[in-house]
Each structure stands twice: as structure tokens, then as C-alpha cells.
Design goal:
about 30% helix; 4-stranded mixed sheet; 13 helices; UDP-n-acetylglucosamine1-carboxyvinyl-transferase, Chain; about 25% strand
Length: about 450
């Protein structure tokens, strides 16, 4: 982790060009670590993201008795070896601290519940913000299957205790349960958690969604990764998923983690704003990540985009960036970068269906509105939307980051307006991209 000062001054930038090798995808990294741990056999993972979120998952797996060996990197790509436990945790009682890693907290809640009995006791906690992020829909779904989960604080939120006597029904009801319903409007991680845990239940499980599902492409990642570990999820329409009784995770032996498409958005946006060409390596048209769809927005705004199997390149177009009015339900993380692009558009832009921002690392709608206004933007917001008008006159500003990695990375793009920008508490990028500011600086210097 670079040693960042409490506040980081980014000097005015007029142009950028160059290429960046992306870190591994956070979403794929933590899914892969957990699936490898649940599998039969040993898995070697390359390209794994080195960040706070993945460290929290690695710490949790170690406390649960899973053997994880960190191997020597190859060509700068981190490698680990995970010895799977076949769905049976060696340690039956543990205190797990998961920071603010939703990609660790929600799936672990489900897989630990599916593997619980009268003799297990797992307690899951995190940072104060994690204890404000809702988990009630997932807990309700697990309890409907009879799994014992208790709130240790406010109902509907972490911390949680898992294990002991089943709640509300006999243990046989858990064995015989065949279906469960879960809401998808708060977080797609609830469905991901149930899907990943389902093969541990000993019989077929049907999961049915209630209401609209946000971030649907993340479910595609989950289903894709489960298939790589030998479990095929059957789909009955758009909102019903079935995991067969024969499902059992098997190690694929070796697996490479692709680059983080959400992180790619910052550099691609920089190319669209400040000239380019900027090329990101590690993610491209063969990606399984929904955030690759960010390039569609860049094209619509007038940027020039090229893609290879594992790279994307963006150059500024010949005309000013065009404004947009779009639904970002499928790519809420990359939507934050879109809000920064709106500052450079020819007229106000509107981001719709971003209500999930309210329950992320911070209330991102409120945080973005506050910090964009500091730069001189005209900003309006509602429960699930944000409208951003480009500044008539740009203002240098000190940006608060709210312990949110994406706030810090997004607002680095403001320097491309030719103003100095101060990023407060820049070390929050350790959550997913510890080297972000160093990589950003390389594009500026070339």
C-alpha cells in the first residue's frame, strides 16, 4: 500500500495518454476465493486483486481453517493456492471481521448458514458503515429455510451470529426445503449469496426473485464463476434460478482473474475527456463483467473506442462530449464515473435508477451531489436519480471522500479540467485499488 498523505494534491492536467495494467476484479476475486475454498481439490489463482476487500476474505478463510498459500508472483501478477474444504469448514466457531467488504460479508453469511448446525457459532462484524448496510432481505430468506441467524445489533443490519438451534422450525424442514424468495431491489449480493451457498444444502434449491433486480450483470458473473467450479445454475425465466441436487463444487485447477472493469472506467473516461489514447489492459470484449458496458456510454458521448479480447482503448472525439439521460441500474459502480463525465458534457446530464448508491460505502447520491457542487457544477438529486450540469466556471476544491474508494478515484478526473484538486483521505482506495493514484499519474506524465 502506498504511503498517501492525509490529503493528496492533484495538479491541473491538460492531457493524458498511455496504458494501464488493471488490478484483478474485486467481484471476481472474492467470488473465486470463496468458491475455491468450498471446492474439492486445490486451486491456483492468478491475477487476484491485492486490496483491503480481498484481504478481509483471505483473513476469514484462514480463520475458518482453509489453507491458503501465497505463491511467488509471475510477471507482476499475484498468485495464491487455495486448498478446498469440500464445503465443510474445519473450524466450527469463529469471529470474522470483514471491514466494509460486501462481496465478502453477504456470501459468507449464506455459506456459513448453509453449513451451520447446533455446534457451530460464527459471528460476522465489520466497520461502522457495514453495520449500516442492510442485510435483512438475505437473513429473512435464510431464516425461511430454517437456518439460525441472530442480529447482534439493529434488526436488519450486521453484525450477525450464525449457528445453534434452528429458528422457528425443525431441522428436517431445512433438509426438505426446496425453494426460497428474495428481494433484488436493494442488492444483487443477496441473490449471489444464496446461489453460491445452494450447493451446500444437499438438495435442489429454487430461488425466486421478488421485484426488480439491480446490478443484474453481477449475477451473470456469479453464475459464470459457479460454472467454472462445476456447478450449472438453471434459469427458468429471468427471475427464477435452480441449483440441482447433484451440484458440487470441483476445483478447475487453475484460474486467472480478469482485470477490474469498474476500475477501468476512470482511465477510459480520462481518455475521453483529455485526449488519449488511453488503453487499459486486462479487460476487453471477452469480459464477463457488466461494467464493460461503460464503453457504450463513451461512444454515445462521442469518444472513439476500440476493443480487443483483453484491452480497451479510448480517444477523445472531435466534438465536445454529448450529454446523456440514462438508466444505470445495471452498472451502478461505473455510473459514478459517468457523473464525472457529465461535468465535461455540452449540457446537463441525468443518471437514473441509481437508488442502490444510497446503501453503498456511503450514501453516494448525497456525497456526489455535495462534492460535485464544490467544483461549480449545478446539481439536483432525488431518491434514485442525479442531474449534473457542467460548471460555468470551474473551481479548485478539496474533495471529501467519506471513506469511499470510488469517491476518491472518481474525483481525480476533475483535475482534467485544468484545475488543482485536493483529495482528502486518499488511502481509502486501498479497498480495491491501492496503486490507483500512482497509475493515474503515469498517464499524466507520459
Amino acid at each position: 500500500m502506498p504511503d498517501y498523505p492525509p490529503s493528496l494534491l492533484l495538479s491541473a492536467v491538460r492531457s493524458v495518454r498511455g496504458e494501464v495494467r488493471l488490478p484483478g476484479s474485486k467481484s471476481i476475486s472474492n467470488r473465486t476465493l470463496l468458491l475455491a475454498a468450498l471446492s474439492q481439490g486445490t486451486t491456483e489463482l492468478t491475477g487476484l486483486l491485492a486490496s483491503d476487500d480481498t484481504e478481509r476474505m483471505l483473513d476469514a478463510l484462514a480463520l475458518l481453517g482453509v489453507q491458503v498459500v501465497r505463491l511467488e508472483s509471475i510477471d507482476g501478477q499475484p498468485r495464491v493456492q487455495v486448498v478446498g474444504c469440500g464445503g465443510h469448514w474445519p473450524v466450527r466457531r469463529a469471529e470474522l471481521y470483514l471491514g466494509n467488504a460486501g462481496t465478502a460479508y453477504r456470501p459468507l453469511t449464506a455459506v456459513l448458514a448453509f453449513g451451520s448446525d447446533r455446534d457451530t457459532c460464527y459471528r460476522l462484524s465489520g466497520v461502522p458503515r457495514m453495520h449500516e448496510r442492510p442485510v435483512g432481505d438475505l437473513v429473512d430468506a435464510l431464516r425461511s429455510l430454517g437456518y439460525p441467524i441472530r442480529y447482534l445489533g439493529q434488526k436488519g443490519y450486521p453484525p450477525l451470529e450464525i449457528g445453534g438451534e434452528p429458528i422457528g422450525q425443525a431441522r428436517s424442514a431445512v433438509v426438505n426445503a426446496a425453494s426460497v424468495r428474495v428481494r433484488g431491489s436493494v442488492s444483487s449480493q443477496f441473490l449471489t449469496a444464496l446461489l453460491m451457498a445452494a450447493p451446500l444444502g444437499g438438495r435442489a434449491l429454487q430461488i425466486e426473485l421478488e421485484g426488480e433486480l439491480i446490478s443484474r450483470p453481477y449475477i451473470d458473473i456469479t453464475v459464470n464463476m459457479m460454472a467454472r467450479f462445476g456447478v450449472t445454475v438453471e434459469r427458468a425465466g429471468a427471475d427464477r434460478f435452480v441449483v440441482p441436487a447433484t451440484a458440487c463444487y470441483q476445483s478447475p485447477g487453475r484460474l486467472a482473474v480478469e482485470g477490474d472493469a469498474s476500475a477501468a472506467s476512470y482511465f477510459l473516461a480520462a481518455g475521453a475527456i483529455a485526449g488519449g489514447p488511453v488503453r487499459v489492459l486486462g479487460v476487453g470484449q471477452a469480459s464477463i463483467q457488466g461494467d464493460v458496458g461503460f464503453v457504450d456510454l463513451l461512444r454515445a458521448m462521442g469518444a472513439q473506442v476500440s476493443l480487443g479480447s483483453d484491452w480497451i482503448e479510448v480517444t477523445r472525439g472531435s466534438q465536445p462530449l454529448r450529454a446523456f439521460d440514462r438508466d444505470f441500474n445495471d452498472i451502478p459502480d461505473a455510473a459514478m464515473t459517468a457523473a464525472m463525465l457529465a461535468l465535461f458534457a455540452d449540457r446537463p446530464s441525468t443518471l437514473r435508477n441509481i437508488g442502490s448508491w444510497r446503501v453503498k460505502e456511503t450514501d453516494r447520491i448525497a456525497a456526489m451531489a455535495t462534492e460535485l457542487a464544490k467544483l461549480g457544477a449545478t446539481v439536483e438529486s432525488g431518491p434514485d436519480w442525479l442531474r449534473v450540469g457542467p460548471p460555468r466556471e470551474w473551481r479548485a476544491a478539496a474533495i471529501d471522500t467519506y471513506d469511499d474508494h470510488r469517491m476518491a478515484m472518481c474525483f481525480s478526473l476533475a483535475a482534467l479540467a485544468g484545475i488543482a484538486v485536493t483529495i482528502n483521505e486518499p488511502d481509502c482506495v486501498a479497498k480495491t485499488y491501492p496503486d490507483y493514484f500512482e497509475h493515474f499519474a503515469r498517464l499524466v506524465s507520459e
